[in-house]
Specification:
Blueprint (H helix, E strand, L loop, with lengths): L1 E7 L2 E6 L3 E6 L2 H5 L5 E4 L4 E5 H4 L9 E5 L14 E6 L2 E6 L21 E5 L10 E5 L1 H13 L1
Parallel strand pairs: 2-10, 5-7
Antiparallel strand pairs: 1-2, 1-8, 3-6, 4-5, 6-7, 9-10
């Protein structure tokens, strides 16, 4: 599967390209919205998910906005009318991660708040060209989590 790879200090997050509508440089206004993991801008029908805040890394510099595609079949509206934008560090490259080289998330991490948002992991990855850990984001689970958080 083709992915966008984002660096977070000692690890990487891979975001499947088939889930991404577009990639953009962040504006100062969007960067200012990183105070929590999920921020909703009802005026513009946009929901921002700060990946550094998700990982409790608020010091990471935000550079790119990754706009997710709608998960609704036949719908042009993103996530029931909301555009979901992942606020992320720099997208360092695009890569191919073979499914057979992706391993399940260890059960020991099941108790963590965000472990269910990932579809697997890979060590010593060709995707990053080094020995760093790569965690594969599951955009469907992330959007379900965002919808749940926004409605609570």
């Amino acid at each position: 599967m083709k992915v966008f790879v984002c660096a977070f200090g000692g690890f990487y997050v891979a975001i499947p390209m088939d889930s991404v509508a577009s990639l953009t440089d962040l504006t100062d206004r969007q960067v200012a919205m990183q105070g929590t993991v999920v921020t909703r801008d009802t005026e513009n029908a946009e929901t921002y998910v700060s990946l550094p805040m998700l990982f409790n890394l608020p010091q990471e510099k935000l550079r790119h906005g990754i706009i997710l595609k709608s998960l609704e079949s036949g719908s042009n509206d993103l996530a029931n009318g909301n555009k979901i934008v992942l606020l992320s560090t720099e997208v360092v490259n695009t890569s191919e991660i073979p499914n057979e080289k992706t391993h399940p998330i260890p059960r020991v991490l099941n108790g963590t708040q965000f472990s269910g948002l990932f579809g697997g992991m890979q060590c010593a990855s060709e995707a990053t060209r080094d020995a760093g850990l790569v965690i594969l984001l599951n955009p469907e689970r992330l959007i379900q989590h965002v919808r749940q958080e926004v409605t609570e």
